[in-house]
Structures are given as structure tokens and as C-alpha cells.
Design a protein that fits this description.
Length: about 170
């Protein structure tokens, strides 16, 4: 197991409970923002399994009320994916991303991407800013760093909720 370098100072009171094999890179946090219709914060644990010894997906994320719960969830996914005979499909991905139809493992080394010209010529989404701190030289991270440098990072939309109309105020 390799622990992401930011944990030398960030969320460094946590120690992984599971034995992540080989060079699997792990990182965690107590307040990840999860997007969707109703964004919420949660503890999360993320792993980038060592491809030389694992058939699990390239990226695994667990969530929970505590980092320990999140790690347990991530490790359960890792175990399930590692035991699967994968059936890959492109689904909604147009990059080299593939999802297994059985276990939902994610990998991006199974097919060539569908190239859309100019797709990186835009600001980085704010929710990827955390990824820039990762100690990784992957193409994915390098493209995000370039986008942040050349086009900036979008701002978290913190606009207040729409005002409630006052009854009888007209
Ligand atoms: Zn699978």
C-alpha cells in the first residue's frame, strides 16, 4: 500500500484498517463533497489498485459516516471486483473509460477514447480541485493540472436558495 503524499499533513490521524496489496495508492478525507441533485458531504476513501497484481478497477471509492466505514465499503468493492470475470462496456463514457457490467469496476485502459477536439479547452470543475493535490503523474491528472493552469478553476456555486414569496406582501 502506498499512502497519498498529502496525508503527511492532511487527515493524518487516520491509518488504513485493511491490507491494500502491492502498490495500491490510497487516500481519504472526512468531508468529500458528493454531487448530484442534492449535494452532500461525507467521509470517503479512494483506492487506485495496483494493476500488476489486481484485476479490480483502476479507481475505487467508498463512502460512509466515518472514514473507517468508507474504507470498509471501498475494500468490499475491491474484493468483489477482484473476483469478477469482467465484461467491459463503454456505456456513457467517451474517453477510454469502461465499466464492468457485472461488478461496476471502472478502468480506463481497455479501449481507445473517442476524441472530441477542444474538449480540454475549458476551466477545471471546482470539485476536481482536490485531485490536483494527488501525487500522481497520470495523463488524467496532468490534463487537469494543465486545464487549471490555462483556464482556471470554476467556482463552487454558492448562490443562496430562491427567496420564498411573502404571503400578502403585495
Ligand atoms: Zn467485473
Amino acid at each position: 500500500m502506498k499512502i497519498a503524499s498529502q496525508h503527511a499533513w492532511k487527515d493524518n490521524e487516520y491509518t488504513p484498517r485493511h491490507d491494500w496489496p502491492g502498490d495500491t495508492l490510497v487516500q481519504w478525507g472526512g468531508s468529500g463533497v458528493v454531487l448530484g441533485k442534492n449535494p452532500y458531504t461525507t467521509a470517503f476513501f479512494e483506492a487506485f489498485p495496483d494493476k500488476s497484481i489486481s484485476t479490480a478497477g483502476g479507481f475505487i471509492r467508498g463512502e460512509g459516516a466515518t472514514i473507517e466505514d468508507a474504507e470498509a465499503s471501498a475494500f468490499a468493492k475491491y474484493t468483489k471486483q477482484n473476483e469478477c470475470r469482467h465484461l467491459w462496456g463503454r456505456e456513457h463514457y467517451r474517453n477510454s473509460g469502461q465499466l464492468c457490467r457485472h461488478c461496476r469496476a471502472f478502468r480506463c485502459d481497455q479501449v481507445k477514447e473517442v476524441v472530441i477536439l477542444g474538449r480540454h479547452r475549458k476551466p477545471l470543475e471546482w470539485y476536481h480541485a482536490y485531485d490536483l493535490e494527488m501525487d500522481s503523474d497520470s495523463k488524467y491528472i496532468r490534463i487537469m493540472r494543465l486545464r487549471a493552469k490555462l483556464f482556471g478553476i470554476t467556482e463552487l456555486d454558492a448562490s443562496p436558495p430562491a427567496p420564498v414569496s411573502m404571503e400578502g406582501s403585495e
